[in-house]
Amino acid sequence: MLRQYGLRILAQGRRHRMKLAYFLKDATASGGMERVLSNKCAWWCAQGHEVHVVSLVDPQGREPFFPFPAQVRHHNLGLQRIYRKGLANKLRKGRNVEAFVAAADRWLTQFQPDIAISMFDEYSRHLPRTRHACCKVGELHFAKHKSAQHMYRLERTAAGRALCRLYKHADYRLIGGYDAFVTLTAQDAEAWGRLPNITSIPNAASFVCPTRAPLDSKQVIALGRNTRQKRFDRLLKAWSRVAPRHPDATLRIVGPGGKDDLRRLAHRLGIESQVTLDDAVRDVPGALMQASVLALSSQYEGFAMVLLEAMSCGLPVVASDCRSGPAEIVTHGEDGFLVAPGDIEGMAAALDRLLSDPSLRDAMGAAAHRNVARFSEQAVMARWQALFEGLLRA
Questions:
Q1: Which residues of the chain have pLDDT under 70?
Q2: CDD domains attached here (predicted)?
Q3: Cis before residue 324, ω within 30 degrees of 0?
Q4: What's the whole-number average pLDDT of the chain?
Q5: Cα 212 from Cα 56, distance rounded (Å)
Q6: Per residue in 289-338, pLDDT tens?
Q7: Phi and psi (nearest 5°) for 275?
Q8: What SS3 state is found at 6?
Q9: What angle, 0 to 180 degrees and rounded to 10, lies between the N-to-C axes of helices 169-176 and 158-167?
Q10: What are residue 90's phi and psi, to 5 degrees?
Q11: Which helix (H) or strand (E) holds 33?
């Protein structure tokens, strides 16, 4: 069947109308992965391709948080039972995987996509186990070791790399089953090693702002779900060192998830009057245009889309130099500052410097607005188009 697809695309040329299917847990969620997917779908549809989005769970009437083009066809496999919490369901993990593989195979057989793409979440990562002979692509939207950052130190030696490979044996087996496996950064591709099917393609900027933010509000903004990954507690501690020097400045943390822990910490630090905690907003550009600096305090990232979004609005950024993404997006000292993960004093010093110097803010904001062009949608999606067409021709 792959040969049939390849002959078809060769016969029709580069303008072949591809049928694409994206698999993920829930397309109605409000995370960065879902935002990236909605943007990709819009681009593919604009190019005339047919796009299907397959959620593993039934959204039960929920609309997508991010807008999808009307041409996108949404499906669900009705597998919400495999995500039940509790020990009993954990013990059924193998049967849950088989349930996904069987359901996905039935869907693939019915709809016959040219390329099926897994967002590599807990169950959709098992897409290569399906029997249908379409091209299969994996997209990794987080760093190799995620929160287990100590594993990267272990990989500095040959023996450590062997142990890490053994530890990630199941993932390596899954990755080997894909026709292509795509990481978001070159740093992460290198961490996986010299795999024949691995490549890296960054996320594209979510939007283009023709004008830059005025940068006159003295508001520092942070965006993201309140999880331990984002380490907003460290950002608040850094802010407690900055706020007394800038009584007219505010820190705004925006994103889904309860924030009672952050409210209590802000109260203990005596900075609650200079901290605003808001739920997720749909108008991300609007929120960024009101700010003057973007802060990212994460312990780890897959790519840190929020950096691209802030730079698109002309905001200078102060970012934790975590794996992976920030160092491939931010040019330290030119369009922002990179600080070591967990360096609260370093984060505070960089924020203080930008808040204290309007001319520096403006220069870095201009550089950010200029430099983010290399992540334009056209540039990034052209790489995806070339990858997919290459697979179909192979």
A1: 1-15
A2: GT4_AmsD-like
A3: yes
A4: 93
A5: 39
A6: 999 999 999 999 988 889 999 999 999 999 999 988 899 999 999 999 99
A7: -130, 130
A8: helix
A9: 70
A10: -60, -40
A11: helix 32-46
